[in-house]
Amino acid sequence: MSITYLEAIREAQAKLLRDDERVFIYGQDVGGTFGGAFKATKGLAKEFPGRVLNTPISEDAIVGTAIGAAMQGMRPIVEMQFADFSSIALNQILNNAGTHYWRTNVPVPITVRLPSGGTKGSGPFHSQSMESIYAHYPGLIVMTPATVEDAYTMLIDAVAIDDPVIYCEHKYLYYHLKADKLPTEGLPTGRARIARQGRDLTIVTYSAMLHEALAVAEQLGGEGFEIEVVDLRSVKPLDTNTVLASVARTGRLLCVGESFPWGGATAEVISRVAAEGFHLLDAAPQRLNAKDTPIPYHPNLWSAHRPNAVEIMRKARALLRE
Amino acid sequence: MLQTAQRTAKSKTKKTAPPHERFLDAFRWMLLARTLEEKLVSLYRGGLITGGVYIGKGQEAVSVACGLFLQKDDIFAPLIRDQAGRSAFGEPLLDVTRTYLGSRQGPMRGRDGNIHRGRPQQNQLAMVSHLGAMISVTVGALMAKRFKGEKNFIGLACIGEGGMQTGSFHEGMNIAAVEQVPLVVVATNNHYAYSTPNDREFACHDLVDRAIGYGFEGYSVDGTDLSACLDVIGGAVKRARAGRPPQLVVASVLRLSGHGEHDDASYVTDDIKQEPFARDCLKVAEQMIIDLNLLDAETLAEWHKDAAAQVDEAIATAQKEAPPEGDKEDWCAVATRDLVDSFE
């Protein structure tokens, strides 16, 4: 048996609907026989009548509705058709869901699934990575699963968590990533994972960039360098301890993320390591992000816009030389 | 399929009609709200309240009708000028005074102020400032009740004509009708969005005309006439409870204060102050009580005195309580303690 990252997301939702009557799925085109723009909910509307509901194109109201339902004890899962469109729901997510527990002591357990990241030909409005925006605001948990196993267990965790969870699922991984079977348990949310052990350089990354980083580590392994790769799994909370422990072993740090370069998850990692682990560093920490332009449509431009194995390799070699 | 919403003829209360059966009950809540808010204004002027004070002067008749017909399992989403409705729904005066005076006790514990308070677990939603946002939240709360198999519940959400112009309001109204939840939306046109008059807010003939476009049933009411408000809003609540499509009531009033107490409202024209909708609903109701001899003068005076005493007590209690302190605050915005991000 082989299961993809996308199938893992579907299976997690099927399990959640089966096991917990508080769960319902709310989003554009998720219901009926269609099952979502990416088929992440295919068949679920039939299997769970009345609990997988199509909505109007109203991102603000979709999330607002989920918030109200969560306050009354439900565990809604919202599917944004693309992460990019969650900008319409920013107010509900940041100002309503994100502030509610702090203001009223009543948590808002919603899960918002964001099909994130770039694929060829998708252009400026269907390719964005929004994790850094959401991580910036208080009151939200931001997950960025990079493996089939994490896609499954972290989505199940997301629904169990009492706080609003932004679950960033990477569209590029939907079909590219396969596992033999679904796990029965995973690492707890908030814990980073050492995806590959090494002692010469730490690459900290998350989501689809994990696989670019692992490819670079593999290639450099053939040249005798041992690259440690840390998969953050969630960017908020950010597992600073695992990152610091890795930097303590390697003395060198490169952070890679697919989102825009100003601020963001990679900047946060470097800031924390510089503040708390400056003495551990043998070279200035580096980071690599997408370019500071909208995400281009054409494949030639797109593949040069996002960080890729070639760029990661260039940065890694420069760091290893220092 | 959705039921087709029909626009119903506008309600007209005859001057000679006997007052609504809950008229006196409603009047007493209005009086309490007015007394409380006048006191809050004087505390603000005396520098004893930090942040803004936002009152519902002139809107009490509409607001009380919003709170009065709700039961405890109903959802109430009040907005900025709904003290009368909040009180009628069951909000203790102490919640108000503690929030305004910055007590560590009370529902917001100093973390949020003034009208942004609520008790979601008791079905009083805590509004955010971003207008229109609470409509869909109310829809979601009603859907949850339906999922859970509860019966006989409704939701009522308040908005102003200013908030009606947001995208969030539009999305919320539309999704309410799509979901066919038992919702009443009461929109009070107080003729100014902060300082902006109606002619720069919208260009439609009558805001209630939007009801049919959303799939709501729409009604208009003179917001200065308490009996009419009770009649029309009470009717909308009854219809929502009976399974009719979502209900929109548009009330017309003039805001008899600034946007907040920092605002002298000098932009309100003399002409508009002469309009019928510029009457003070509390005075109109009180005059009706006197004219129809619904209460004797002694009882009426007693009600005034009692409202003042309740308000004084709630203020005195809150003033004695300790404020929150920065170094003792639990600076944690998530409920899941082991998912707190740590910053050095």
Care to describe what's here?
The complex is a heterodimer of chains A (322) and B (344). Chain A is an alpha/beta fold. Chain A folds into two domains: 3-179, Thiamin diphosphate (ThDP)-binding fold, Pyr/PP domains (Rossmann fold), CATH 3.40.50; 193-321, 3-Layer(aba) Sandwich (Rossmann fold), CATH 3.40.50.920. Chain A contains twelve helices and 14 strands. Chain A has helices at residues 5-19, 44-47, 59-71, 90-104, 131-136, 148-160, 173-176, 209-221, 240-250, 265-277, 299-305, 309-321; strands at 3-4, 23-27, 52-54, 75-79, 111-116, 141-143, 165-170, 178-179, 193-196, 201-205, 227-231, 234-236, 253-256, 286-288. In chain A, strand 2 (23-27), helix 2 (44-47) and strand 3 form a beta-alpha-beta unit. In chain A, helix 1 (5-19) runs parallel beside helix 6 and helix 3 (59-71) packs parallel to helix 4 (90-104). Chain A is globular and about 60 Å long. The model of chain A has no long low-confidence stretch (mean pLDDT 97). Helix content of chain B is 38%, strand content 9%. Chain B is built from ten helices and seven strands. Chain B has helices at residues 23-45, 60-68, 83-89, 93-101, 133-147, 167-179, 210-214, 226-241, 281-291, 297-320; strands at 75-77, 155-160, 183-189, 192-193, 196-197, 217-222, 247-252. The chains are: A alpha/beta (322), B alpha/beta (344). The interface between A and B is large, with 51 and 49 residues.
List the helices and strands and how they pair.
The complex is a heterodimer of chains A (322) and B (344).
Chain A: E1 3-4, H1 5-19, E2 23-27, H2 44-47, E3 52-54, H3 59-71, E4 75-79, H4 90-104, E5 111-116, H5 131-136, E6 141-143, H6 148-160, E7 165-170, H7 173-176, E8 178-179, E9 193-196, E10 201-205, H8 209-221, E11 227-231, E12 234-236, H9 240-250, E13 253-256, H10 265-277, E14 286-288, H11 299-305, H12 309-321
Parallel strand pairs in A: 2-3, 2-4, 4-5, 5-7, 6-7, 10-11, 10-13, 13-14
Antiparallel strand pairs in A: 1-8, 6-12, 9-11
Helix pairs in contact in A: 1-6, 3-4, 8-12, 9-10
Chain B: H1 23-45, H2 60-68, E1 75-77, H3 83-89, H4 93-101, H5 133-147, E2 155-160, H6 167-179, E3 183-189, E4 192-193, E5 196-197, H7 210-214, E6 217-222, H8 226-241, E7 247-252, H9 281-291, H10 297-320
Parallel strand pairs in B: 1-2, 2-3, 3-7, 6-7
Antiparallel strand pairs in B: 4-5
Helix pairs in contact in B: 1-2, 1-3, 1-9, 1-10, 2-3, 2-8, 4-10, 5-6
